[in-house]
Structures are given as structure tokens and as C-alpha cells.
Amino acid sequence: MNLRDVVNKYLAIAGGYGRPAALAEFGLDPVQTERLFGSFDEDYHISRFFHFTNSGGAAFKINGFEHTHVSIDAEIETIF
Q1: What's the pLDDT score for residue 15?
Q2: CA dihedral sign, ordered 1, 60, 65, 55
Q3: What mean pLDDT value characterizes the chain?
Q4: Long-range pairs for 36-41: beta carbons < 8 A, 24 or more residues apart
Q5: What DSSP letter does each residue of the chain carry, written as one string?
Q6: Are strands 50-53 and 60-62 parallel, antiparallel or unpaired?
Q7: Which pLDDT does position 65 carry in this prediction?
């Protein structure tokens, strides 16, 4: 998945920007989820728009920290 695919999937899951979406709902296996979101988290230009939380449910290790949800700021569209 590229960034645009992830954002489109996020919007379908969360129903809009700024709302939490369960990482498990992106339809990837755990390794893919951790690798994909880990790479976005490591990129400064992308990571500033991603907000990870651990609020119950299936947890994934994103760069060493357990997270269950992600929310994305609408400003992500400025880098497409």
C-alpha cells in the first residue's frame, strides 16, 4: 500500500480525518501492519500527520511501541 491507499482506507474505516481507526481494520497481517506504519512513522514529512494510540484491541508494535489505533490529520493531503 502506498500513502494514498492508506489514507483512503483510513477514511473508509474512520469516516473522516482526526478520528481513530483500528490498525487491525486495514486488512494487513501483523508483520505488514507493523512494517508499513513503522515506515510512515519514521518519515518526518509523513509522521507529523499520523497519531498513534493504544486504546484497546489488537496491538501492533510500531517502532518499538504498542499501538492499536491511528488517526490522521487532514493536512496529510498537502503532501500528495
Answers
A1: 98
A2: positive
A3: 98
A4: 36/1, 36/6, 37/62, 37/67, 37/70, 38/62, 38/63, 40/3, 40/6
A5: --HHHHHHHHHHHHSSTTS-EEGGGG---HHHHHHHHHHHHH-HHHHTTEEEE--SSS-EEETTEEESEEEE-GGGGGG-
A6: unpaired
A7: 98
